Amino acid sequence: MAEHVRIMLSEEEVNQKIQQIAKQISEDYAGKQVHLVCVLKGGVFFMCELAKRITVPVSMDFMCVSSYGSETKSSGVVKIVKDLDEPLDNKDVLIVEDIIDSGRTLSYLIEMLKKRGPESIRVCTLLDKPERRVVDVNVDYTCFEIPDEFVIGYGLDYDQRYRNLPYIGVVEFD
Ligand code: IMP
Ligand code: MG
């Protein structure tokens, strides 16, 4: 089967929206330092673009959890593959996610990170598929709400491919 990618959100649209969200974050965290927690691997492109546009002091850490295999639907199992390097005590933590689907990964993460004594925890996501939500989670910053389609690009993969696309697309099969 031949695969091709249909563009859902162009590079310009995505970058423009990230600029807006970064401005909002910079205003909301005025006088503070924001500690970005990137959820690997999908969140990494978004986090870099976001961080470059935030004007308050920024620190960063990375963690890797897995809830998906090569399949395109949630297993419901969340495993920590790589933990954060630094403690979160008294930090203003902003979790940076690529996409919120069922909400399972995020709700698990928030509960786990809350126990590490941060001053605050908020969530910023590039994409949200509200129709797919199974677990209720509070998302503070959302760039785009999208329909229930499997998307790739800007960090998101289909079987580990397409993360490097500078836009958001949908894989279609002929
Ligand atoms: P959740 O736990 O169901 O919310 O799933 C979150 C994770 O599933 C995301 O961080 C992605 O890694 C992956 N995921 C969910 N939907 C998509 C998609 O449309 N494309 C690529 N990955 C997805
Ligand atoms: Mg993710």
Written account of the structure:
The protein is an alpha/beta fold and 174 residues long. It has a single domain, classed as Rossmann fold. 22% of the residues lie in helices and 33% in strands. It has 3 helices and 9 strands, in the order βαβαβββαββββ. It has helices at 11-28, 44-53, 104-114; strands at residues 3-9, 34-40, 58-66, 79-82, 92-100, 120-128, 141-145, 151-152, 168-173. Strands 4-3-2-5-6-7 form a 6-stranded mixed β-sheet, with helices on both faces. β2, α2 and β3 (58-66) form a beta-alpha-beta unit. α1 crosses α2 (44-53). The radius of gyration is 16 Å and the shape is globular. The termini are close together. 28% of the residues are buried. The model has no long low-confidence stretch (mean pLDDT 93). The protein binds inosinic acid (IMP) and magnesium ion. Inosinic acid (IMP) binds at residues 42, 67-68, 74, 97-106, 150-152, 156. Inosinic acid is lined by residues 42, 67-68, 74, 97-106, 150-152, 156.
Number of helices: 3
What is the CATH C level class, in words? Alpha Beta
Proportion in helices: 10-25%
Number of domains: 1
Low-confidence stretches: none
* CATH fold label: Rossmann fold
N to C succession of SSEs: EHEHEEEHEEEE
Instruction: Provide the gyration radius in Å.
Output: 16 Å
Structural class: alpha/beta
Mean pLDDT comes to 93
**Order of strands, widest sheet:** 4-3-2-5-6-7
Bound molecules: inosinic acid, magnesium ion
Query: How many DSSP-defined strands?
Result: 9
**What portion of the residues fall into strands of 2 or more residues?**
25-35%
Note the quaternary state here. Answer: single chain
User: Can you tell me the CATH architecture?
Assistant: 3-Layer(aba) Sandwich
Q: Could you give a short account of the major beta sheet?
A: 6 strands, mixed
Shape: globular
